[in-house]
Amino acid sequence: MSQKILIVGAGFAGVWGALGAARVLDRAGATARDIDITLISPKPELQIRPRMYESEPHLMFAPLLPLLGAVGVNYVEGSVDEIAVRDKTVRMTAASGETRTLSYDRLLLTSGSELSRPSIPGLTEYAFSVDCMEDASALEEHLEELAKLQDSSARNTVAVVGCGFTGIEIATELPKRMRAIFGPDAAIKVIVVGSQADIGPDLGPNPRPFVAEAFGSLGIEAVLGSSVVSVDASGVRTASGAHIEAHTVVWAGGMRASTLAAQVSSRLDPLGRVEVAPDLRVEEAPGVFVAGDVARVRSDDEGHYALMSCQHAMVMGKFGGHNVAADLLGASTLAYSQPFYATCLDLGEWGAIYSEGWDRQIKLTHAEGKARKQMINTQWIYPPAPNHADALAAGDPLASFG
């Protein structure tokens, strides 16, 4: 009877995890002949989530079946609802509604994260987001429908709630997108609303002057220091009592790990991520490894922890895939390590900021930064070519550092 590796989730960690596991089995040859790798996700595609703030989000995906086929990874379409770590099984629901139970010998959980949506009145009914392709497409369709309405200040105004990375990128991209939809002469207004005192509170001091310059150049306003307490069809109201009139509200209020994380461990951080061992295993759930946005793990020897980002998910996925396969074969696992960290923040028509290091030392700005961002978004974060050699090479965790 064959042994089974299950990978739950086809985000960046899941895709590169599948390649990492396939690489180990390929190198083991006949020893691994009776081990199957299966990837489970709702669709056989990688949604390029970091690009959902751009126009035409429905095009931001990469098909996975040719890539998985090139390395001998099986694909099962469906959503995992329950993980039974004692029985080593998962229960999943297919698109048809049929439920199935699959067993595993090793599990790599890469179910990712989702936008945090607190119980603010009207948030679910009236706010849009760019959390996934479906959400981003709904926002784009909404803006196109607004173009049919009479020109007005409320029609031409978007309130972006959240002043972090996602909020900044969608806010700085919106003026160009809205002019393309409403016309070049429309009086576009984008207002970023945040409860923090600064734009980009997690970015640190180095990028902030450039963000402020971009906001000024693009005419973006910032309303800071007061949280949003309600959303309705006419706009948002803040805790200070101010009402911002806008026919469009975009919620960018932070992320939380997939709820499946709580099914494999009770040791969760405030973001819902599993506290894992250096090799990404869950010590209280034998045979389970976790990677990507659902894992809390140190990325270097300086005490930095991996962030919820494709940058960390891709590399962590390679380690996770390598380790589930190595562990099943009785080989040594690898401690996850990713000492290099860079940040590239898109700022719309102004350009972009590229920085390196956790203290975010600025390396490129304006057009040069934009060129780097476009390289990242259109090439570096896409899966490799669907051929055996390239796909397996992309799964090597140690090649991440050259």
UniProtKB/TrEMBL annotation:
The keyword Magnesium does not apply. The keyword Flavoprotein applies. Belongs to the NADH dehydrogenase family. One of its GO terms (molecular function) is NAD(P)H dehydrogenase (quinone) activity. InterPro entries: FAD/NAD-bd_sf, FAD/NAD-binding_dom, NADH-Q_oxidoreductase. Its cofactor is FAD. Keywords: FAD, Flavoprotein, Oxidoreductase. GO terms for biological process: aerobic electron transport chain. It comes from the Bacteria. This is FAD-dependent pyridine nucleotide-disulphide oxidoreductase. Residues 4-317 form the FAD/NAD(P)-binding domain.
